[in-house]
Amino acid sequence: MESLATYLKSARDKKKITLAQMAGDTRISLRHLESLEEGRYGELPGGMYNRAFLRAYCDYVGIDPGEGLARYEVETVPAGEKTTKAKPKIPQVNSAFKPHPLVVWSVMLLISVTGLYFSRKWIASIFSPYFSHPSAPKIVADSTPDSTPASPTKGSTTETPPVLPPPSPTTENASEVPSSTSPLSPGTIRLEFEVLQECWVSLDRDGNRVLEKKLEPGDTQSFNATEKFYLVLGNAGGVRLKINGKLAKPLGKSGAVVRVLINEQSIKDLVEKATG
Q1: HSE (CB half, 13 Å, CA atoms) of 245?
Q2: Using CA atoms, how far apart are residues 189 and 88, in angstroms rounded to an integer?
Q3: How far is CA 21 from CA 18, 27, 171, in A?
Q4: Mean pLDDT, the chain, as a whole number?
Q5: Cα 195 to Cα 209: distance, rounded to the nearest angstrom
Q6: Residue whose C-alpha is closest to residue 220's, from 263, 158, 167, 181
Q7: Rounded to the nearest 5 degrees, what angle is found at the Cα of 140, between the Cα atoms of 217 and 184?
Q8: Which contacts of 179-182 are long-range, i.e. CB under 8 A and separated by 24 or more positions?
Q9: I need a labelling partner for 21 at 20 to 30 A (CA). Which of 36, 123, 232, 234 fits?
Q10: According to the model, what pLDDT value does residue 67 have?
Q11: pLDDT tens figures, 161-192
């Protein structure tokens, strides 16, 4: 079986993604990504951070995180520890003074809490991109959206985006709605977007991932949901959205990474400027 480093680099090369691009989108240090991809695990922070970096790497390039973590365990855990782990032996202190175990554990707990307190900002900056979701329909990355949408690509217009024929059904887009003109059922939310510039897109519908890929200019996508969408754009200015047939306001500038929750409560705010 090939090494974890070779496995990761091969997957990234197939996606034609640079480490610099990955570092910018995932907020993981470029130095840590290089160490992970070259098998230099000793240069990583260690412990749960290594596994969190590895999981984020696998999610970004579209491979199974479980496979990556399994290879990591094989390469990092010593052979003797795979079957059993011996209980640590507490050395005997040959001294007249022997502190009470409760005092020792209290001191250790105090040191741990103090360390977590002073490193809370660093820990939050590492894990917040992967585990945080907005509680309200708010654009997280760019609070001041660009008032002028990004320039459309050749062949498209500013007022009416061209409607392209639906792509052939595949495993990846099997959940797409065939036509944006089909009538909506009561309580259904329709999301349509046209790609104006190259953009990485992730879309969850009613809690299930239905799209995660890099789209090219001219691509169009259309989905229906009964409750909500959670949309992540790697280039907010490169995508034009329609919600229930109404043009949404710009989500951000070109190159901005945004996350937005779309449900019945947020639709009014998202289309307010475009329809007013």
Answers
A1: 7
A2: 57
A3: 5, 10, 26
A4: 75
A5: 19
A6: 167
A7: 60
A8: 179/222, 180/222, 180/242, 180/245
A9: 123
A10: 83
A11: 444 444 444 434 434 444 445 566 767 899 99
Q: What is the mean pLDDT of residues 87-113?
A: 74
**pLDDT for residue 79 is more than 70:** no
Within 84-225, strands assigned E span 189-195, 199-205, 208-215, 220-225
Residue 217's pLDDT band (cuts 50, 70, 90): very high
Backbone torsion region of residue 245, taken as left when φ is above 0, otherwise alpha when ψ lies between -120 and 50, otherwise beta = left
Residue 262 vs residues 26, 91, 97, 140, 248: alpha-carbon distances, Å? 22, 58, 64, 13, 11
CA nearest to 52, candidates 14, 21, 82, 26 = 26
Which residues are registered as beta bridge partners of 263? 228
Can you tell me which residue has the tokens 């390469």? 75
How far apart are the C-alpha atoms of 92 and 18, rounded to whole Å? 52
CA atoms within 13 A on the CB side of 125: 8
**What domains does the chain contain, in order, with CATH numbers?**
4-83 (1.10.260.40), 135-276 (no CATH)
Give the pLDDT band of residue 273 (cuts 50, 70, 90). low
Q: Which residue has the tokens 């329809």?
A: 275
* pTM exceeding 0.70: no
Phi first, then psi: give them for residue 246, nearest 5 degrees. -105, 140
**What is the H or E stretch that residue 269 is in?**
helix 267-275
CA–CA separation, 34 and 12 (whole Å): 12
